[in-house]
Amino acid sequence: MMTFEGSHILSVSQFDREAISKILTVSAQMAPYAMRQKRCHVLEGAILNNLFFEPSTRTRVSFGTAFNLLGGFVRETVGEENSSLSKGESLFDTARVISGYSDVIAMRHPKMHSVSEFATGSSVPVINGGDGANEHPTQALLDLFTIESEMKPFGRTLDGLHITLMGDLKHGRTVHSLSKLLSLYNNITVTMIAPDALQMPDNVIATLENAGHKVILTNTVEGNLDCDVIYQTRIQQERFASPGEADLYRGHFSLNREIYQQYCQAHTVIMHPLPRDSRPEANELDTDLNDLDNLAIFRQAQNGVLVRMALFALTLGVENSLTKYEKPITWYTNKAG
Ligand code: CP
Which residues lie with the beta carbon below 6 Å from any ligand 1 atom? Predict the structure, then answer.
């Protein structure tokens, strides 16, 4: 199995099944801290630098929350215009400097492979929070954690699942990373629903097929939602040459309760990495799905805290010391149930 301590987390290609199992196990151990049943200060004094050079709500805030929940401090840089990258400083030099101020760095950047380039200059672990249309490894890990936990009540594991990926599969880095992780499991069927021009890149399809999985490519929703998990995605407007080009595809695959009831199984779980585009012309996941038990999108986003806590614990080598650093919760909370 890979050594986590001191390692960068840049791509899902780093992981084998054993490594993923370790991450998911440690993630589950983080639930009492995230649910405010007790505190853990195992990273007290440690510093996370969160560098987000592209917009983010969930990834940036959950990285910071995860680090705080383990007792660490968080410093943030948001937007390239607020960094000396905008003065021509290289990613390498930036990494040499910022890693001197940090114990670990989480970074998002609009350019593919930029986080790996940055990591070459860093003396501390760097975690990829999304690099252009390339990868979003921590999202894929939290997606896998979510699929596993959502399927457990139905007596199902990841092996043998039928998962439907839908939307902008060309530019959506979350579906690239998730597909590569799924390829490590057994007997998976993946239906990919996208406009022909936004279908999954060939190399991702090949990764699944070469691992023996069944891939179905289609541009039609009707008749293709009879699956265990629907993973809806956003049209990634920021990756198109112009917003007008993205408009051509917005709203093609809106999912609402009527479509769900007509085409899905009773147990089909709906996921989305979020943000969902709720503007009327897109309406990717209609609000009439909000009170459906099988809508997992907010549980999925919450799981991001657990998985990112686990990655900090593993890369900083404290995953076996959590219980030694526990304290009681002394304030009002409604999370503990
Ligand atoms: N899922 C995700 O990456 O969301 P943000 O862009 O809000 O971080």
Answer: 56-59, 130, 139, 273-275
